[in-house]
Amino acid sequence: MARTEPETRARPAGPTASRDELERIEIDLLLEGIFRRYGFDFREYAPASLKRRLWRRIHAEGLTSVSALQERVLHDSAVMERLLLDLSINVTAMYRDPSFYAAFRERVVPLLRTYPFVRVWNAGCSTGEEVYSLAILLAEEDLYDKTRIYATDINESVLERARAGIFPLDKMREYTQNYIAAGGKRSFSEYYVANHEAATFSRSLVDNVVFAQHNLVSDQSFNEFHVVMCRNVMIYFDKPLQDRVHRLFYDSLATFGVLALGHKETIRFSPYEERYEELDSEERLYRKVR
Ligand SMILES: C[S@@+](CC[C@H](N)C(=O)[O-])C[C@H]1O[C@@H](n2cnc3c(N)ncnc32)[C@H](O)[C@@H]1O
User: Who's near 56: CB < 8 A, 6+ residues apart?
Assistant: First the structure.
């Protein structure tokens, strides 16, 4: 929901309020309640996808209105946990969009070689597939030993899965193809042990990874990074929130640090556009220059 100016927010919908207007009020109240009760701030998430996901949870809980969901969420933290999973959309994959990793190898790796120590922030890492992909890439480029990856997400339960590094075995064929397309240099199966239904990735890949809960909406910067990688997260935010998160990333990057956004996001039209130079226009890799 877009955060509106106080006078707009206070304006009553009136006696002829449409169903849509009433639903907007209900959603605003629900999001306000979630924020005040749990501290999760979804008030500036893009409305269309938010609404779809709220209704998914309403039906799954056997309810019929947004207000009924509000009642449940405020009084039952288990419902909030389930709603959080719906709202935080955790879809991910290893070497998702392989061309992104190929461009990272070609354009970012040479820059990282110039540093004695490298700090990477993978924001919105979900269940960790992106983190393991990056760790493998850095290891193959002999950079992993001098790198620390801070992998964060709003959602503690996906972070637990990320820490474990156990992914479905039936995904490995797809991930192997992605790995090869991304310029992988070895045999992908060297990185995991397959048993029953699962592929357990080598613990050495997370030796230099710190997993931590961090909320891009409300938490501050916590370090100075050489790379900030955040893909498929800001698409769920409205424009003012995207701009605030761009500010957070800008403040979190060292000068000449790299912002890695992937296909779906851009710094174009953000107030920070002028402060970066483009390293790769397709894969949206930018370098902070001022
Ligand atoms: C679609 S996944 C993207 C995962 C991965 N970056 C990728 O591209 O495959 C979006 C992730 O963003 C996280 N997320 C959503 N809102 C967030 C916030 N305010 N702060 C931090 N993470 C957030 C979600 O929990 C989810 O794991």
Answer: 86
Phi/psi class of residue 62: alpha, beta or left (left: φ > 0; alpha: ψ in -120 to 50)?
Answer: left
- Helices 77-88 and 47-60 meet at what angle, rounded to 10? 140
Q: Are 194 and 166 in contact (CB under 8 A)?
A: no
**pLDDT tens-place string over residues 240-263:** 999 999 999 999 999 999 999 998
Expressed in angstroms, the distance from the first to the final Cα of the chain is 32
Question: What is the rounded distance in angstroms from the CA atom of residue 278 to the CA atom of residue 243?
Answer: 18
Give tens-digit pLDDT for 149-161: 999 999 998 999 9
Q: Is 131 in the pocket of ligand 1 (CB under 6 A)?
A: no
Which residue minimizes the CA distance to atom 25 of ligand 1? Answer: 88
Ligand 1 geometric centre to CA of 124 (Å): 4
Reported pTM: 0.90
Ligand 1 centre distance from Cα of residue 230 (Å):
8
The answer to whether 240 touches 178, Cβ cutoff 8 Å, is no
